[in-house]
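The pair is quoted verbatim as follows:
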Amino acid sequence: MIPQVPDSSTLSAGDCQSAGDQRRQKESSMSRIDGLVQVYTGDGEGVTLSAAGQALRSVGQGFRVCVIQFLKGCSESRGLRTALDNQPSIHIKQFGRDTALPPEALEPGEMKLAEEALDAAGEAATTGDYDLVILDQVILALEWRMIGLDDLLSLLRHKHKNVELILTGCCAPPELIAAADLVTDMRQSKGSPRRGTEVC
């Protein structure tokens, strides 16, 4: 049986007020939802592209997204840029050189760019201008000691309460795992790594 929907002309003033109050209460409760800290890590491929999927899903729900790329030369990071480049609701900020590099090839300029990326991440996560902030390959930058663990943990503690934060990269340390609300550990369970796979 299809439930009968009352005609708006038959609603009393009290009914309209009650409906309005319920709508406002629902909107208020939605605005108070705290954003989680998510970590996508592991030795398998797909941490960055999984974050890209979350970005597209968020845009579909009308959310504002910011992506901070710490190592834009990684193959997955380039794929993320390609996937998200034409989305006007996604703001992408890139740091680092365009080509993949091993950690022993790091130069002082790379360290400075990583610090700038962390500053940009802190601004995006604390102002409340965005609903989702993705720190792409920030964990790899941490592993390579381009940024400090204490600085990254401080960013997590001081983020805007409504901002959802996603951190990607392999080798997440125990301290970061403990600070996260949700951790996805991607592991390759079958097959061998592709030949010529870049370091990140």
User: Anything to note?
Assistant: The first strand starts at residue 37 and ends at 41. Residues 124 and 131 are 9 Å apart (CA to CA). Confidence is low (pLDDT under 50) at residues 1-11, 23-31, 195-200. Helices lie at 13-31, 47-60, 75-84, 108-126, 138-143, 149-158, 174-179.
